[in-house]
């Protein structure tokens, strides 16, 4: 008797709770409707989220202020989100319709977010007179996964072609021929890379810190004239081309011989940049993001060198990590949001953020001097040239989860647990399965 | 007759009941429902029957996570219970018990994230305190958190240390509940300390031990924070625990259905283990009044 009563009570309570719980998920967008302001009619309030360290956030704010100056009736509030867990937070906000009007999306996540239908298509707006930037002003190789079926869902905020940083002082102290000399002689190839890192090891230092990520991996494969995905069909082809296999063999050998030290074997939080600055390591790979940090360290003598090329060409394409700015499809002020997106990524917006010693280089043509005039470092042009040849993460990142799976398989090779052949076999199996699954959906 | 009274009773229970419904029961039912659906967290949910469960049983990562978690449990449980019992017995008759109790209990109330960060420094292979201490006594310490063989034992060591205070306090309470008269009687009969421990302390402490064992197994199956903060499941998935697998399916791969299925499987596993323990407890747990 009592039990049934209790059950009824539970049921009643459940029914009472249902509308309440549903109410949580149908709430409207986060941007508040503007209140009446002084004289220019309605003020529109936009929220804008991005990841970045405090110094970077300050730089983003410059472009935000520039936009508000030009559009006094639009207020943009920059709400930083920590990069650790950024996509999880954004996803949760999108689910609850609480997401900002405009937000950064990483190159590995954008295709997932496009599939949710939560990103506003920008193509039409970009070709209108309202837009601050036109699609054809951007480097073609940088659209990556932000373009789908010829529609644009995100614009590169800037870009970061991969290259190597080397410690000039450390190399000359150990009497090692500088990568620049090899490069000028047209010999900056795998053999030179091996030579330099071996000499560094003999000098009691680490040679090169290898990180696990698509950008480095693809750069190594392309450096040997190899290919990992067919750029036309999107198929995985690393296991079918000699050159790509050679590059993998080289990587595995470098790790095994301890010429390269894997970041995954370094404790979490002990980064390559710290080891570079303390003179423990001769070379590290990155985009421009280490530059502001190294530039502040006045005792450090360093320079850029392009990724080693193992073909007859002086340089080969590299991976270009980038982030995209997207507008929320559910925003109450979609028009203004898109306006801000195009301003932030336009020549004006990018120059404000990247001039001098910034954390990236422009993804839009015509303002490279803003970066190269800084002369930091001496061969700053290397990074601009790298952009002309390189590619953003286009194919791998459009298959949800593949990026991570590839990293997990590579992890074992970088830790010296799998050889190159085993690794490539595993990669082929995983990639082919996931690509087929994705096509079937 | 008692209808009005019952109503009052429920009214007083209401805050607790509503809380339980909104934050426990409904989410659990929601998870159960989701585990039969395909959902990326957005848009329409599609009913797909048992596909998520089948997907999990054929997923190598699922088995890897299960094996890792089982391994961790085997490492943690005996040591955790043994050491906390030893410490509790040592503290039981000591002067300044309160001070020590506070001392041992401190880690328990510290946030897991800060504990993780601190231990990352302790266990750092190159310049961690632990390896420096070991070096001083001539032992070449391993790369605790970046060697695939050592990472799980490292996390286990942290967990044993972390749970020590909690288990110890419960054991202490259990020890203090044992009447002195048993020991006095045993003394008169000429039982030595070991015999007293073996035939009085252990049997009379068994309800406490039983409670701690159940709780410890449940919490060790749910290990997540340490792996999340210190290693992100690495290197090469060697600290990829079951709850980390659930988290990753939901918030990295956006596969809410698959993640819910994995969560339900974990629920069943824990349930089975708990039932087995209850069954076995009839043989070794002695309540004083029986």
From TrEMBL, chain A:
This is Sugar ABC transporter substrate-binding protein. PROSITE patterns: PROKAR_LIPOPROTEIN (PS51257). The keyword DNA damage does not apply. CDD domains: PBP2_TMBP_like. It holds the Pfam family SBP_bac_1. It comes from the Bacteria. PANTHER family: ARABINOSE-BINDING PROTEIN-RELATED (PTHR43649), DIACETYLCHITOBIOSE BINDING PROTEIN DASA (PTHR43649:SF12). Residues 1-22 form the signal peptide. Transmembrane segments: none annotated. Keywords: Signal. The keyword Cytoplasm does not apply.
From TrEMBL, chain B:
The keyword Iron-sulfur does not apply. One of its GO terms (cellular component) is plasma membrane. The keyword Cell membrane applies. It is a multi-pass membrane protein. SUPFAM superfamilies: MetI-like (SSF161098). The chain crosses the membrane at residues 12-37, 70-91, 103-122, 150-173, 202-224, 256-276. Keywords: Cell membrane, Membrane, Transmembrane, Transmembrane helix, Transport. Belongs to the binding-protein-dependent transport system permease family. This is Sugar ABC transporter permease. It comes from Metabacillus litoralis.
């Amino acid at each position: 008797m009592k039990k049934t009563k209790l059950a009824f009570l539970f049921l009643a309570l459940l029914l009472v709770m249902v509308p309440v719980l549903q109410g949580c998920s149908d709430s409207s967008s986060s941007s508040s409707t503007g209140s009446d302001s002084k004289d220019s009619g309605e003020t529109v309030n936009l929220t804008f989220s991005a990841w970045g360290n405090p110094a970077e956030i300050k730089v983003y704010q410059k472009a935000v202020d520039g936009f508000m100056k030009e559009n006094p009736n639009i207020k943009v509030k920059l709400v930083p989100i920590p990069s650790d867990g950024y996509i999880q937070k954004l996803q949760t906000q999108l689910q609850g319709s609480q997401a900002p009007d405009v937000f950064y999306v990483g190159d590995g996540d954008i295709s997932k977010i496009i599939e949710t239908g939560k990103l506003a298509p920008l193509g039409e707006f970009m070709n209108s007179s309202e837009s601050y930037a036109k699609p054809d002003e951007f480097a073609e190789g940088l659209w990556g996964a932000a373009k789908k079926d010829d529609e644009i869902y995100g614009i590169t905020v800037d870009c970061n072609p991969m290259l190597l940083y080397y410690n000039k002082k450390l190399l000359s102290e150990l009497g090692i021929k500088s990568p620049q000399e090899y490069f000028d002689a047209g010999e900056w190839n795998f053999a030179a890379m091996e030579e330099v890192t071996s000499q560094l090891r003999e000098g009691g230092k680490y040679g090169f810190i290898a990180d696990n990520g698509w950008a480095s991996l693809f750069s190594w494969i392309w450096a040997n004239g190899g290919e990992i995905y067919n750029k036309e069909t999107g198929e995985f082809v690393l296991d079918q081309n000699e050159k790509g296999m050679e590059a993998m063999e080289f990587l595995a050998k470098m790790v095994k011989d301890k010429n390269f030290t894997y970041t995954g074997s370094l404790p979490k939080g002990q980064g390559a940049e710290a080891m570079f600055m303390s003179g423990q390591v001769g070379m590290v790979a990155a985009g421009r993001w280490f530059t502001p940090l190294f530039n502040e360290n006045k005792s450090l003598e360093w320079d850029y060198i392009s990724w080693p090329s193992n073909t007859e060409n002086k340089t080969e394409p590299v991976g270009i990590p980038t982030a995209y700015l997207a507008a929320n499809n559910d925003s109450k002020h979609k028009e203004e949001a898109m306006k801000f997106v195009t301003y932030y990524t336009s020549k004006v917006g990018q120059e404000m953020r990247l001039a001098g010693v910034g954390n990236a280089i422009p993804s839009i043509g015509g303002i490279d001097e803003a970066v190269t005039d800084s002369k930091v470092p001496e061969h700053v042009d290397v990074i601009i040239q790298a952009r002309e040849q390189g590619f953003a993460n286009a194919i791998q990142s459009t298959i949800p989860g593949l990026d991570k799976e590839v990293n997990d398989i590579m992890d074992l090779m970088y830790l010296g647990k799998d050889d190159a052949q085993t690794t490539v076999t595993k990669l082929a199996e995983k990639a082919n399965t996931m690509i087929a699954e994705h096509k079937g959906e | 007759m008692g209808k009005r009274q019952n109503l009052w009773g429920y009214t007083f229970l209401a805050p607790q009941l509503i809380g339980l419904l909104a934050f426990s029961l409904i989410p659990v039912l929601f998870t159960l429902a989701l585990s039969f659906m395909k959902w990326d967290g957005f848009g329409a949910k599609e009913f797909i029957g048992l596909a998520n469960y089948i997907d999990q049983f054929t997923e190598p990562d699922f088995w890897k996570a299960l094996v890792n978690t089982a391994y961790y449990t085997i490492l943690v449980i005996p040591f955790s219970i043994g050491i906390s019992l030893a410490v509790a017995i040592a503290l039981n008759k000591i002067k300044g018990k309160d001070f020590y109790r506070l001392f041992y209990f401190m880690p328990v109330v510290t946030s897991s994230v800060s504990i993780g960060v601190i231990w990352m420094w302790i266990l750092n292979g190159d310049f961690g305190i632990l390896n420096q201490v070991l070096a001083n006594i001539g032992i070449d310490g391993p790369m605790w958190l970046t060697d695939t063989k050592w990472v799980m034992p490292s996390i286990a060591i942290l967990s044993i240390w972390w749970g020590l205070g909690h288990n110890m306090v419960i054991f202490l309470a259990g020890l203090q509940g044992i009447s002195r008269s048993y020991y006095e009687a045993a003394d008169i009969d000429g039982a030595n300390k070991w015999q007293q421990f073996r035939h009085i302390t252990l049997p009379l402490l068994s309800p406490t031990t039983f409670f701690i064992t159940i709780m410890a197994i449940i919490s060790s199956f749910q290990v997540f924070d340490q792996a999340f903060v210190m290693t992100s499941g690495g290197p090469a998935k060697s600290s990829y625990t079951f709850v980390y697998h659930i988290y990753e399916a939901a918030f990295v791969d956006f596969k809410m259905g698959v993640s819910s299925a994995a969560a339900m499987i974990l629920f069943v596993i824990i349930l089975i283990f708990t039932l087995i323990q209850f069954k076995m407890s009839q043989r070794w747990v002695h309540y004083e009044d029986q």
